[in-house]
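Record type: monomer structure entry
Structure origin: computed from sequence
Chain ID: A
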Amino acid sequence: MSLAPPITCDADVAEGAAWLAEREPRFAMALAQTGPLPLRLRPPGFAGLLDIIVGQQVSVASARAIYTRLVAAGLDRPEIVLRAGDDGLRAAGLSRPKARYVLALAERDFDFDALHGLPDDAAIAALVDMPGIGPWTAQIYVMFCLGRRDIFPSGDLALQEAARGLFDLPARPSPKDLSAMAAAWSPWRSVAARLLFAYYRVLKQKEGLS
């Protein structure tokens, strides 16, 4: 089975957003508030996965600051990570568990190029096979580093909260329930995720003004 062409540009995201808005009025309503959706692609490979690991369970601002320090020190390259070791990664701001995961990743010499030829589920499974890489991290990598069109990380709390607000749900949906909802948004679930991420920011701004 051939793979769908990846998302590579703003026009691809706009195509997916138009498809979603045509089929789901609430997505059309959300788009009117968010405006055009960001591309949000990241470079594939070690540096891209490092960026995602850094962003786990910290604020966007903290993640940017830490990643900037890592890049400035050359710690976005496996060979430099191995030379720096745990102390070097910790000095750049990584927590002890994240430093351990990044070191394990650098030691693994993982074949990131091979992921481009794998179906979505197989690419995610190959990433999850590494220490410290859970489903969310793998899904975010496949979505934003490989540009896959139909990935939906239903375990993401921001997506759950955005769906609750947009669809007037009585409570935040579970990952299983949100995944079931998202089935109707295929083959553009990656753009649906972008839209819900953007709508989550709209909700947070409204809460800040209230």
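Annotation 1: The first helix runs from residue 10 to 23.
Annotation 2: The mean pLDDT is 94.
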